[in-house]
Design a protein that fits this description.
17 strands; alpha+beta; Elongation Factor Tu (Ef-tu), domain 3; 8-stranded mixed sheet; 6-stranded antiparallel beta barrel; Aminopeptidase
Length: 355
């Protein structure tokens, strides 16, 4: 990954964008794609769509901009901030973490309180529900805290990213800023290869709270095919259960993007993307999706009466924690794969199944 592309990724990952509060992250994405897109547009909720115009079929690549987090639900008499969830926040990892409260006046730093081990009864040790946890911002009273934060302010884990060995990267919010990075980069690379297709890159909002942005974009965009790029569970770490290993679910970091098959995933789009991988020697892993994908693809594919859709997964360890781990080689491979898919799709009339 060259310096420019790495800088874009790091800026995305260090710009918090919890669901419902994605504007800062969307501005970063828009600034980047504006350098090579023919047009960039947004809607009332902040979904962003960039396009490189062509004369062939219309192909779209999408990722979701939002991340999980917490939200200020109240302030008690002693100045401690009470919280609730934004999206699928995990009560098992929130306690004892550094956090940022994003207010209209700037960032207020705090920590999620954790009762010291010396004071806990091991027999009663369990994870409290998030609504029973609290954030300590250092305030001495309710009045003092109310001068700093408001009910409804979003809270995120402190956005620190760390390089691990080789091409591995760790941090919070990787789900799914890496998907928006791939969508942007696939658009840029498709344009550089002079594809005849019209190619869109999409960065949606509020995926973590019900695929809401994809529902909006899917209704409005109407492409011939759309690929939703999101993270998927890597199965190559010790926390994977023996049952999962027994079922031979062997998705690994660094072994390439993951093509989902079944349910939402349109067989013609699946076939075309796999062929793009073969033509370019890009390794592709496979994943079964017998019921749904749990990604924006589930909203895209039923929009406007049916849009051929596919979910591409980026292997991710420790999802929905402050220490998600990915391999940047998988991101590069996914961007190249989708760019080649756009090039090869230029000669197609569409992706309908043959009946």
């Amino acid at each position: 990954m060259n310096d420019e592309h790495r800088a874009f990724l790091e800026t995305l990952l260090t710009t918090p964008s919890p669901s419902g509060f994605e504007t800062p992250g969307q501005r970063v994405w828009i600034d980047y794609v504006s350098e090579f897109a023919d047009d960039v547009r947004t809607d009332e909720y902040g979904n962003a769509v960039a396009v490189v115009d062509g004369e062939g079929p219309e192909i779209a690549f999408g990722g979701h901009a939002d991340q999980i987090g917490l939200i200020v639900s109240g302030i008690d008499e002693n100045g401690f901030v009470r919280v609730d969830k934004i999206g699928g926040s995990d009560r098992a990892v929130t306690k004892g973490q550094h956090v940022e409260v994003h207010t209209d006046d700037g960032i207020v730093r705090g920590v999620v309180g954790q009762r010291a081990i010396h004071l806990r009864d091991p027999a009663d040790d369990e994870f409290e529900d998030i609504v029973d946890q609290h954030v300590d911002i250092g305030a001495k009273s309710k009045d003092e805290a109310e001068e700093l934060v408001d009910v409804g302010d979003p809270i995120v884990f402190s956005p620190t990213i760390e390089d691990l060995h080789g091409t591995r990267l760790a941090g919070p919010g990787i789900d799914n800023r890496v998907g928006t990075w791939v969508a942007a980069e696939a658009l840029r690379r498709a344009a550089e290869r002079d594809t005849d297709a019209t190619v869109y890159a999409v960065s949606t909002v509020q995926e973590e709270v019900g695929l809401q942005g994809a529902k909006m974009v899917g209704f409005d965009l109407d492409p011939d095919a759309i690929v939703a790029v999101d993270v998927t569970h890597a199965m190559d770490s010790p926390d994977v259960t023996s049952e999962e290993r027994f079922n031979d679910i062997d998705i690994e970091l660094g072994d390439g993007p993951v093509v989902a098959r079944g349910s939402t995933n349109h067989p013609e789009v699946v076939s075309a993307v796999r062929e793009a991988g073969r033509e370019t020697d890009i390794p592709v892993q496979l994943q079964a999706a017998g019921v749904r994908t749990g990604t924006d693809a589930d909203a895209f594919y039923t929009a406007r009466g049916g849009t051929p859709s596919l979910n591409i997964g980026l292997p991710n360890r420790y999802m929905h924690t402050p220490v998600e781990v990915i391999d940047t080689d998988d991101l590069e491979a996914a961007a190249d794969l989708l760019a080649e898919f756009a090039v090869q799709a230029s000669g197609r009339d569409g992706f309908s199944v043959d009946l």
